[in-house]
Amino acid sequence: MIRINLLGLPRQKKGKRGSVAAVAEPGMPGEGPGALIFIVAGLIIGLGVLYYLWNDANKTSVDLATKIEAENREGTRLSGVKVKYEQRRKEADAFEKRVKVIDQLRDAQTGPVKLLNTVGESVNNTDAVWLSEMTENGNTLNIDGTALSTIAVANLITTLKHTGYFKSVEIKSAAQDATNKELQSFQFTLVCERQQAKS
Fold first, then answer.
1. H or E, element range at 131
2. Contact 125, 157 (CB under 8 A)
3. pLDDT tens-digit series, residues 107-119
4. Is residue 47 within a helix (H) or strand (E), and if so which, with residue range?
5. Of 36, 38, 132, 171, whose CB has the highest number of CB atoms within 10 Å?
6. Which of 182, 180, 181 has its CA nearest to residue 146?
């Protein structure tokens, strides 16, 4: 009698029970669930890793955005501080310029007074000398006057030099006054160069 195996399973040989394991064919119920579980578990683990990496990158991105926003706010604040500082510095520079102008005006105002006081004291400390005219040209001062002797003119020159106000005092001319017959007198002209103002 001929037997046909319609199931496709190998037949066990008589006398050798259990020695040959049944080989499962693809699509058989014994193979599918195990491989499917491994595939599903792998997908779940992969998705979990991807979610973790995405979440970590998202947190880093949010942290960086927060820090950038904070830095931008700080930069804006510092820009305002810089603008205020520049404005205060300009005001301070303008104030300093005004103070310098006021000091220069004050020096220019007191300069002629100091000059007149210096020359006046020098003439008062010298006997027999009278001034008739005094002209100023820059740092040069021309003094015209009358003296009873040339010694009086020399004493006036010495006195002017000792004031420290003049760099040099030179006699430009000295001549006897011929118009006054009763009294011997001399007409003189002095050229005085003032010291440079110390800055």
1. strand 129-137
2. no
3. 766 667 788 888 8
4. helix 32-124
5. 171
6. 180
Axis-axis angle for helices 32-124, 150-162 (nearest 10): 160
Residue with tokens 């604040």: 77
Q: Which residues have C-beta within 8 Å of that of residue 195, sequence separation ≥ 6?
A: 164, 165, 166, 167
Closest to 163 (Cα-Cα) out of 94, 117, 108, 197: 117
pTM given for the model: 0.45
Residue 63: Cβ-neighbour burial (10 angstroms; 0-12, 13-18, 19+): exposed
Closest CA to 146 of 131, 127, 161: 131
Query: pLDDT by residue (tens digit) across 67-111?
Result: 999 999 999 999 999 999 999 999 999 999 999 988 887 776 666
Cross-strand partners of 146 = 130, 187
